[in-house]
Amino acid sequence: MRDLLRPIVVAPMAGGPSTADLVIAAGQAGALGFLAAGYKTPEAVEAEVRSVRGACSGYGVNLFVPLPPPPDVAAVERYREALRPEAERYGVDLPPVRLTDDDHFASKVEIAVEYRVPLVSFTFGVPPVEAVRALRAAGSAVLITVTSGEEARRALAVEPDGLIAQGGEAGGHSATFSPAAYRGDRGVRAVLAEVLTVTDLPVIAAGGAGARGAVPGLLAAGAAAVQCGTAFVLADEAGTRPAQRAAMLSGEPAETVVTRAFTGQPARALRNRFVAAYSSLAPVGYPAIHHLTAPIRAAAARLGDASALNLWAGVGHAGAHAAPVATLVDRLQE
């Protein structure tokens, strides 16, 4: 698998930022881009794979591992009621609680197998061993995202080809296997070092890599590659929502916080009105909470209202630049 990797990996960013153009541009710039299959239909994923595979030889696809129903359904129902003022604010209806959703997991695995996607990464847990075996038999290298040495040990049981060690600085969803306890307070260097003690497989470092010198430093610390997401949110080729671009380019000081308010899974985002109002109320419950807040977020996006958007961003968001992918790749290697 090491021959497939490049020093810089452009992270999969579900919900819009990751586009086929972003992945293609990453490959042309000497990096490795990942398509984000999360939230998309199998047909949309297949179309993106077909587009990318003809334009660059090295790329990957990220899949969400299906999660069990929320541990506390009553808490999800209470959160739905707490969201009523937001639904009224934006003139939308709250959907009924949806306890399960496998995000078309089996179909997306089949697509990756059919097209022999070079790299397939998983987030939100350990994928079924049958899926890993099918992908490896098709020639795909399999990566599993972890946030601790213990999670790495669990992931190794299904025999992946490598791991992604995600630190708490990373923007967007944490891949933690323990969402109730996750605080995002362990840095990528600590997580990387811990994961390297339990495996000789290649380990990609993710989180906090946008600062000058961070990528070379993590490579020197033993990472086989470094995955960067926030550094590419403002890339010309990214499909980032205009409201998020405006918020990140405003120049106004903004902190990031780990919150379950938008999806029920811990995720690092810019603090805004929605985060401040609902973080303390949101239970563990991905993807049930994601489906509850989706109409609110969609309405806010149509209005260009960043106050109710999930503005996923890592701790180094202030250093993100609007530029072509090639320029950003060069900058990260300095």
Automatic annotation (TrEMBL):
Needed cofactors: FMN
Transmembrane segment boundaries: none
Keywords annotated in UniProt: Detoxification, Flavoprotein, FMN, Monooxygenase, Oxidoreductase
Any one GO molecular function term: monooxygenase activity
Reaction catalysis annotation: 3 propionate 3-nitronate + 3 O2 + H2O = 3 3-oxopropanoate + 2 nitrate + nitrite + H2O2 + 3 H(+)
Domain of life: Bacteria
Span of the signal peptide: none
Xref: InterPro entries: Aldolase_TIM (IPR013785), NMO (IPR004136)
Keyword Oxidoreductase: yes
One Pfam family matching this protein: NMO
Family to which the UniProt record says this protein belongs: Belongs to the nitronate monooxygenase family. NMO class I subfamily.
Protein name (Swiss-Prot/TrEMBL): Propionate 3-nitronate monooxygenase
Organism expressing this protein natively: Actinoplanes oblitus
